Amino acid sequence: METILDAFWQAGRLIVAADPALIAITLLSLRVTLTAVVIAALIGMPLGAFLAVKRFRWRRSIIAVLNGLMGLPPVVVGLFLYLMLSRMGPLGALGLLFSPSAMIIAQVIIITPIIASLSYQAFRELWAEYRDLLLSLRATRSQQIATLIWDGRRALLTIGLTGFGRAIGEVGAIIIVGGNIEGVTRVLTTAITLETARGDFALALALGIILLMLAIGLSLALHTLARTEREGRW
Amino acid sequence: MSSILPLSLRKVSLSRGGKRILGPIDFELGGRGLSVVIGPNGAGKSTLLRLMHGLERPSEGALAWAVPLKNARKAQAFVFQSPVMLRRSLVENLAFPLRLSGRPRTEAAKVAMDWAARLGLSGQGDQPAWQLSRGERQKLALARALITEPEILFLDEPTASLDGHATREIEALLGVARDRGMRIVLATHDMGQARRLADEVVFLLGGSLHETGPAKAFFHGPQTAAAAAFLRGDIVT
Ligand SMILES: Nc1ncnc2c1ncn2[C@@H]1O[C@H](COP(=O)(O)OP(=O)(O)OP(=O)(O)O)[C@@H](O)[C@H]1O
Ligand SMILES: [Mg+2]
After folding, report:
1. pLDDT classification of A234: cutoffs 50, 70, 90
2. Closest ligand 1 atom number to CA of residue B21
3. What percent of chain A is predicted at pLDDT more than 70?
4. How much of chain B exceeds pLDDT 90, in percent?
């Protein structure tokens, strides 16, 4: 009990003192995950819109696969990406293993299917509503997609935040391809894993508290968004 | 630019799930006036309008405009029975078709504002479209169709579930458009409206074109027993 209270005390001090190592780790976490969310959104959202507006041969299969990939185990993604990026792997020449870029790629792989699937679901409803009008006004395929994206922007923001939440708390994949190197690839989740194993509970807790605050802030943002969406303010 | 009319339908039919729901129909839609499409529920009024507008593809037969289809497509507009409101403001809804056809934002907004004024809705320009009343929404949908100045306008029961005042406003807008030379095809259940507006009547029954002709002649002396019964208000199927 004493150790736990002491750990909380120390953790509080680290945060209040804005410990440089703590700050660096937090900033890297944010940088990696925000980049991954932006990339995944740029791929997943137009893909979701395309799947909603265009009927083609493999459409149903692609949707089913994307749905399945939503539950992709991060450790497996990490392992797969490790093999691709390691020196003997097909992408080894890029020299990306144990870099933040490798971690970004891992997170993109994990959250793109989530963002694409959720976007598809949101767009499918909107398309059912808009279809006749857009066809009547002879909107081109890209105008149709642009209209869905713009008018669905609230839902998309929510989806982006969901992706962010999933990626920021993920550890299995990035610890494998990032290597948890201090000052280079150490982020909140991998640092917590390490410090806990080492028995440095104060630092682990401080990191955990920051992660928790990010998660709660995120959930508050989602909540507020959902409310403004219901009230139809936009 | 040469007119996209007449539109001719040659043995056009539409089947869904192996069942023929419309046709075969042979019909020529001429160059002038307002045609009213009438008939009981399920007669195929909406389906015929959607086919002509290109929202449905015929299972058999062919439709041909006087010009190649790609030139005819943009010269049409459609007003749906339940208006589709984009999740945008009233003015943005009005400006939307203009923006799609590449008009600059400020110019589109100005034209949209003028139309909002003509609808008597200047005050609600910034209001989300779905907050408007049913009648206001239907007026907005009509204005959004008129704003591109189509050569032909299709309307599917635009005044169903509107009260007398809102109906009169819609009919007034249609009257102005018709007098300016717009070709109009209107499906309706409202026989009073059909008599008020029609130059030509298209009477559908069970998916077939049962009788068609000039409005005056049709309302005074329908040629078929079914049309006479329908006008009397008898139940025909
Ligand atoms: N997608 C569809 N699949 C199967 N049947 C359909 C479909 N759309 C319409 N139908 C059928 O086609 C027939 C004609 O329908 P349509 O909506 O054109 O009639 P309508 O004259 O507009 O009727 P209402 O007066 O009720 O609007 C109906 O029997 C309807 O059940
Ligand atoms: Mg109908």
Report:
1. very low
2. 12
3. 97
4. 91
Beta carbons of B65 and B115 less than 8 angstroms apart: no
Instruction: Specify the number of domains making up chain B.
Output: 2
**H or E segment at B68?**
none
Say if B215 falls within a structural domain. yes
β-pairing, B208-214 with B200-205? Answer: antiparallel
Does a structural domain hold residue B47? yes
User: What's the mean pLDDT when you consider all of chain B?
Assistant: 94
In the numeric block, which tokens belong to residue B81?
């029975």
Q: Is the CB of B21 under 6 A from ligand 1?
A: yes
> Which residues from A are below 8 Å from B100, CB to CB?
137-139, 143
Residue B29 included in any domain: yes
**CATH number of B74's domain:** 3.40.50.300
In what order do the strands lie in the sheet containing B60-64? B19-29, B7-16, B60-64
User: For ligand 1, is residue B46 a contact (CB within 6 Å)?
Assistant: yes
Range of the domain at B166: 7-84+150-232
| Cα atoms in the Cβ-side hemisphere of radius 13 Å centred on A65 | 7
As a whole number of angstroms, the distance between CA B148 and CA B158 comes to 18
Task: Please check whether residues B25 and B119 belong to one and the same domain.
Answer: no
B104 and B77 inside one domain = no
CB B36 within 8 A of CB B194: yes
Whether the pLDDT of residue A222 is over 90: the answer is: no
- Sorted by where each starts, the structural domains of chain A and their CATH numbers stand as 2-232 (1.10.3720.10)
* A40-52: average pLDDT: 95
For position A49, what pLDDT does the model report?
Answer: 93
Query: Per the CB < 8 Å rule, is B84 touching A132?
Result: yes
ipTM of the modeled complex? 0.94
pLDDT at A225: 78
Q: Is residue B121 located within the same domain as residue B194? A: no
